Every structure is written in C-alpha cells, then in structure tokens.
C-alpha cells in the first residue's frame, strides 16, 4: 500500500516538474501535431507524380494515343525527348521512365508483326520503378487492345480480376503514415527523455537526494515511467482525436481505448530501454551517439516504413526483439483492422515480455548506479 | 599609484525579472588587492562576470583598465590584459587534458609563441609545484591542485587584472595557504597587477587592503578593509558585514552553546576500519570512530576528501567495501529502508524539489516517510512556525534565497523526527548571520531533543562549535578530538593552524613549499604582435583540444564509428521495398482443373508464399485481420465452367489495406500474374483470342538491372547515417560547455565566434569523413554495389554534406540551453525530413507541397542524389554541381545562423 502511495506521490511530483519545462512541452507539441500532420498529408504510396519522357520516332496516331494515356496523378504529363538524349536525361535523373516508340510502330502493329516497345526505367527510384513499369505496361496493353478492337477490350478478356482492399479501401497512404509517425515520435521521446533525464541527474549529482528517502529503486523507476507514460498516452489520445481523425480525416475503425492501453505498455518497454541505455553510457554525449543506432532502426525496420517480410530472416528475428515491431503491428491491427485482444494477444504478450525483460535489466543496472 | 583599475557607476543587472545587481557604484585603484564578500546569490559572480567582460553590461557605466567595457574595441583589447578564473573547482579546465596541455591551450589562445609558452609554463609549474604532475589529466587532480592549475592558466599571459571567483572554496587549508602565497609571489613580481577576489572566507578578505560587500544585489559597503572592520568592536569583517546588512533583528546575539548533559552517553554511530573503493580508487580508507547520542560531530576537510562518502557509508546509504559500521546499536545495512526512517539527511545538493512550494515539499516528504496525515499536518505547521517559514510557505522553493532554502532543507530532514541527523556542508554559501541562525536550530535539536548531529563543513568557526571534530584528508581521518584538544595537540594558535600542521605532518615532505623561481614577465612585444581578427592558430588550438578530448573518450569514438557500420549493415540488408514471400491463401470455391491451373502461376512465383487454403468468407476475413495472410484470392464457384463458356468469371483479390504500401505492391504483383495468365486462360476458353501478343514490351531497368534494393538503398543509407551521427557529435559541442561551465573560456579569451565554431567542428568533421570512407567501402565490397561514377564528385559531395550536417549540429548546439534539448532536438528535427522526404523511400520528384519543401530545406536529399548518382549512374561533377552548390549553401547558412545565435558574452 505504502509503495503504491509512494509511486503515486513521486509520479505527481514528476508531472509538476514537466509542467515547468517549456522547451520539452514545445517538443511534445511539435511531435504530436506538426510532425504527424505534415508527412501524412504529403504521403505518397505507389506511383505518384512520376516523371515520364517519350521518344516518339513514329509520330503516328497510336504513338500519340499511348503518350496521352499516361495521366496524372500517377504520371506527370509526358515530355517529348529526342532519341540521342535518352541516356543523358536518365543520368541526370530528370525522368524516372523514358518510353521509346520506334519508327513504323503503327504499321508493324497493324500488320501483326508485334513491334517492340521499350520502357527504360531508372531503377534507383526504388518505390516507383518496379510498380511504375507494371502500370505503364498494363496501361499500354489496354490501349493497344482497345485500338485493335475498339470498345470490346473488357469483353475480350477470358476472366476478370477485381481488387478489394480491406480496412483501407482506397489504400490511402496517409492513414497509415499518420499512425506510424505517432509510433515513431513516441519511440524517440520515450527513449531520449528518460535516458537523458537520468544522465542529467547523475552528471549534476542530484540522484543523491533519492538516497535519502525511504524509497526503493523500483518505486523511483516506476514513478518516472508511470508519469512519462501518462503524459505521452494523453498526447497520443489528443493527437489521434484532433490531428488524425480531425484534421486528416482518417476513419479509425478500431478501439482507441485498447490502442492507448497498448501505447502505455509500449512506453513501459521503451522507457525501460531508455534507462538501460543511459546506464550503459557514462556521459550525455555518449548516450546521444548510442541512441542513434538503437532508435533509427526502430523507426525504419519495424514495419512502419518498409515491410518486415522482405527483410532477411535473421534480421526479422532480431527485429522481433524490438518492442517497436510489435507496437507497429498492434497499431495497424487495432486501429485499421479493428482487431480485438482475441486477435492481437500474441503481439501483446511479446511486447509485455520484452518490456519486462528490459525493465528488469534496467532496474538491476539502475540499482547499481544508485549505490555507486 | 593613482590610476584607477575599475570604476563602476550605477550598474544594474537582471536575469528576466530577477534583479541580480542594483545600482552598484565603486572605484578601485590599480595595483590594489580587493576582496568581494557576500552570501551566495548576492550577485558576486554576476559582478565579476561583468568586470571580466564575460557578461554583457545591461545598464550603468563600467570602466575597466582605462576604457569602457561596453565598447567592443576596448573589450577586445582587454582579453589579453584580464585573467578570469570562474567559480567552482576546475570548471573551466578540460578534465581529459593533462596539466601541460591545459596550460598550452590557454597560451595559444592568448597568442604566446611556443618558446615563450614553454618558458613561462615551466616557471609557473615550478612555482606551483605542479611540475611532477605535468602529464596528469586535470580531472584526476585534487581540488587544491585544480585551483593551482586554474591559476597557472589564468596567469600564462601575464594579465594586469586578475579576477578570481571563490578560488579557494572547498579547498583544504594547507592548499589554500599555498594558493595565496603563490598569488602574493606573482604580485611581488608584477606590482601593477590588480587583484579582485570573491571569497566566502572572511579571514581571506581581511588580508586584502580593499573590500566590497554585496548583499542581495546591493553594494552595502566598500572601502579599505580596516576601516570597514572597525565599525564593530570585534574588528572583524564577519561582524562588520552583519552590521552593514542593517538587519537589526539578526545582529548582536552571540551564539551560546550549552555543554552536553553527560559525556558518556550511548554510542549512536560507530565505524570500524571502514573502507570504500570505487574500482581502484579508495574513497574512504580505514575510517574508525564513535559518535555519542546527542553529540554534534564535525567532519572537516577539503572537497573530494571522502567526507560525503564516509557519511553515506556510515549511515547505511551506501554499502562499504570493508569494515563495519553500526547505527543506533544495529549493524548498518544499505538495503534496509527502515534505517532511512531513523536518519535525516541533508545532502550538498538540497533534497528539495524547486518546482514545489515550501509547504508542498514538506507534504511530499511526509508522505514518502509514511507519516499518517493526522500526525503530519500539525507537524508541518509546527515546523513552518519553528523554522520561520510562514511568510514563504506557499512560494515556489526554487526561487527562494539560499538561506531560506537551507532552513527548509533542514525542516525536511527533521520532519520525521529522526534520531540521527546527517548534514553535508549545510551552510556553504550562506551569509554569516543566517549561518548563526541555522546553528541555533542545530543546537536546540542536539541539546533539547537529544538528536545526534553529524555534519561536514569547511568553515573553521563552525568546526569550533562542534563537540568533537575529525580532520579528514584523502579518504583518511588524520585526527579526531575536541577542537580545543586538537589545537593543543598540533600546537596551533587557531584551529586552522592546527589543521595545516596536521596536514603537513600527514603529507610529510611530499609537497615542497613554493619555490622562489622568479616569474619573468612575458615580453610586451610578444603580446602586441597578437592578431586581433581571425586567427588560424587559435582555431587549430581549439580543434586540437577538441580532437584530443574525442580521442581520449574511446567510448564516444567507438559509438560514432561502430554505430555507423552497424546501421549500414542492417539497413543494407533490411531496407527493401520488394515484397517477397507474400503470405497468401486461396478460397477456391470451384476446385476445378481450370482454377488450379490459374492458381498455379501464383504458387510458382517467388513473390507469393501460400498458406493453408481458406474454407469460408468469415475465416478469410479473420485471417486477414490477424495479418496471418496479406492476400486472399477468391475463385468463384463455376469458374471453370464460366471460363469455358466465355462468360468472363471474376477472380477477387482481397488485400490487407492496413499497410498501404505493401497492399499497393501486392496489387501490382497480382495484376501482373493475372495478366500473364490471360493467355493460359484463353487457351482454356472456347472464345477465340489473338494467339500472339500485340507488342513486345521490353522493360529495361537501368542502373540496377536486377532491381536489387541494396544497389539503390545502400548509397542512400549513407546519406541517412551521415545526417544523424555528425549532427549528434557536434550538437553537444557547445551546449555541453554551457552546461558544465568551460564556455567561460570562450567568453574570456580572444577566441572569435568563427574560430570557436569552426575549430570545434574540425575533429568531428574528420571522424565523419572516416565514417564516410568506411560506408563507401562497405557499399562497394560488402554489398557489392558497383561504383560507376566519379569518385571525385562523391568526395566533394561527401565533404560538403558533412560540413553541412556538422554545422547543423553546431546550430542546434548554439540554439539550445541543455543537453537534453540538444539531443532531442537533433533527433526530432533530423528524423522526419531525412527518413520521409529525402528520397530514400519515395523519390523526391514525386513529393509535392510541404513534403517537397521539407525535402528541399534539408541537406540529406542532395547528398542522396550525389551518392546514388555516383554509385549507380556514372555521374560526375558536371551533372552534380547543383547539388554540391546546395550543400555548400547549407553549410554557409547554418554557420551564419550559428554565428548570429552564438554570443561572445553571457546575458
């Protein structure tokens, strides 16, 4: 009983301190508003606004028809380009796709001689190259079929394919990115705030006063984690309601309550990780450098930016050890797929286990810093 | 000498709304010695900072060495004529550098030629007896040695005005004596030297012919020390200060200490051969003694001699390495929280929460000590009354004057009625009158309530008031007895004399007295030749120092290099936008040869990975929801029949839209496979179809024929890594000096802002260049990314990019005030534009609006173009010069902004 009261009291004290730290509040505000809205509003998924040039050596009706078939928003209006400038234009990165329609293309097509049509792709434009080439291919195919048998394209195909995207019918990239930005900012704040706060107390020698009080390391840590978690969960909630649902108009299908509870669990794991890192570093500059190779992979490889499935197996295993991987997967499941505890329990369990592990290690190391 | 060294008229100084100095006016003749006394927070450091030109003068007129300090030209000429040693033990020294390196760094800043520097350093080291330790890092020196080194650094350029801010606070009396002997020697050699010293020791101020008294921002008295002291019968500055404070209530009342009731009471604290080691450093060495119940026991010694540590060990707050201790008859146990409830502790850094009010602090601690609220309420009321805190009970405690905070700390410490009270330097920085008040409380606790009081101090007059004291030095108790007995034992006129004798005996002949080597002045022409404007020499001195610190901090260096390699490996392997082995399942409601033939194409593809088939729609939905499968293919009943009849059956592909990028890619794959299947389907259909494709579509993936992610991602990841690590390296550069105090050296020396910025940047730039080289090598040989373009262009772009990112770190460092803000700022500001908008994942040409703008306003995207262009596209500077130019622009803009943000003076 006393223990709980201690944690509560200390936690309230931490909140009072936070209220007086204006720089921190400013960062919190930025992290949960601008830093969510901006990337989500400007989000791009798949082929968007891709730059195309066409080398038209045929100048026929069909070549013009093909050129015009490439339309916004997927493609910028195609630019005409002389043949000898293909290499140079691609080298300079002016165009992602350069299409070459050879001379007498139309004649050959009508004569059934299957003329060649070349698409040059700048394959370094990672997210666009492969998908865009497929797009262009299908668009041309449709155009050509239409040209050969006007008005009957659809009927000519032996079978049709319909795509139905569940949980996000129009595949709006911003929906996901908004949530991922929240996840990322929570990661940054949780690890850096708790880590640097601990180091600051150590560098300034104010950890001393904790020794005076009849408190255990566990109580001190739980109070710190608890108060930080409370603030961040609150910010997350407001941000989801105001920025994500309100300003961005993302319909969140799932239960916000469950997601916020999961956020609290994630904060437990990530703040413990922050404390652990702080006990590894001996000074704040060391901590700053140590935090980078921990945080950036958590931002990039947890499934929020790139798919986890396409990473090599060993790395997938490594990333299973990161709380962020489970949190990203939980966020997508709960918020978009409206999954309940019955569905997401494996991730919940993993997140809890990782959190407990980090917490125990951090606690053991924190105890040692207190007494030395 | 008739010339004036200082002339102040109506100086006012405020921090925000807090007034630090109010209407200060005085004069000080050149060549005199002047003491500046007053309690902590009286404005001593602010006044000294203004005189040294370290702080910006707000209002009033201040003439320093025949010129106004407010004038920039004059101030610049003063750097080499003033020496300033800020408060704190070695705060402006560089702990990782040796004594020699510290001194020669300052010498270079002041433009001393090497030979001159060597000669003078040798003389100073001889005079201070530091020669034997010349290669020891400053961080490993004792407090006294640090202060002597500080003095060497201050004197290296032979100043006309020497300003010392509490140079001997926390230093043992022997070192203190040696320190003043040294200053005297310097003055003998250079009689025109004016000395201005802030001190907490009145005895020290008494030896100077001039005295300034500051209290709460006001100059309450100024003039010859003798005349000032003469206002009270005791002829002491101590009492004179109390007199000038004009606080009638406080003055008079000499402190009376009633004798202890009985001398042989039970033992409250006992230590036997107590030892505590941190690694190979012995902080406490075989300490033994016993403290009786109700006794006031004092610990006397310098900073870092082990007083605080011994106190903690003795009371069970820290486990001992060896020996035993007992508290109130029970052996001490560090993990025993019950012990803490019987002990009240007041640490050097007060156990207070500045954001809480006085009352809230008391209430919080009452809760933490588990006092029932029925008991705690009257207790708090009683303490507020007894400790005279009524008038401030609801004020924020952090904003209160030190003396009041000290009283509150004591109130907190005794709140739970402890039997033992441990006070670690409770009165340092408190003015004499408030100190007496504080002692009245202590005496009351000891004599009336029988509380055992164990305190440490470095004030001799306080030690005199203790029942018994022990003299401590370097972890050992040298002597332990009543003050009178100690004085007798070491035949000292005063307790201080006794302590000095005791230290001399203990140290033996190790530390020889100050040598009589003459200190030859620096030849005047040497200093005159010093350049006023930008100096490469100073820049390199700074770069050299910063570099040495970085090299000696192996962990930081290792994190910087290995962190980059680690990220390159996992991102090189890990960031892949191809979707492979996509988990999918089929819901085949037809189960015909045709449907199986159609699905075969999916099963054979490396992009798809089939899971157990789906049996009903509900299950399909559930499995998608659980993310067990990312794609479901639904074949309608009668698919084969309809196909044959030419009725165009429709296959449905259900995608998990939760992660839109993956869904989009999957959709593409599905459509491609379906398209490829059409021919097969046609052959299964009765309806005729053109047997031959209309065109031969040839797709050529340039620069990355196999669309291997790493070829495009690898060079891009370099841009990502080199955005974070160099910025983080430099981001703490300035702000750390601000937080730890060595920034004063920038304010007080001829270093210009540009020299400071660039000099600090150089070592980090070099480390980052090594990083760049390593990353390029890894891309080339570990990941086998072909390099087709111009190495020169990559090198140019790389250097410019690193200049840009390191200068961005400097900008953050110049802008923020705490290390926390600097780290958080670097991370948050860098991550969004680098990860989302640099073109690493989505090409920059596809971005629009604010996203595109953010990408353009951040250097990462430009270097990404250069890295990818030189690696995969065979580009050279002829194509990449606009990007290089942009990076140069970033560097210039960031540095320019930093110059504007960085102030050569404190506010």
Automatic annotation (TrEMBL), chain A:
Transmembrane segments: 21-40, 175-199, 211-240, 252-280, 287-308, 348-366
GO CC terms, sorted: plasma membrane
Domain ABC transmembrane type-2: 141-369
Gene3D superfamilies (alphabetical): abc type-2 transporter like domain
Keywords: Cell membrane, Membrane, Transmembrane, Transmembrane helix, Transport
Membrane topology of this protein: Multi-pass membrane protein
InterPro entries registered for this protein in UniProt: ABC-2_transporter_component (IPR051449), ABC2_TM (IPR013525), ABC2_TM_bact-type (IPR047817)
Compartmental location: Cell membrane
GO MF term list: ABC-type transporter activity
Matching Pfam families: ABC2_membrane_3 (PF12698)
Lineage top rank: taxon: Bacteria
Family as reported in the entry's similarity comment: Belongs to the ABC-2 integral membrane protein family.
Protein name: ABC transporter permease
Species name: Pseudomonas laurentiana
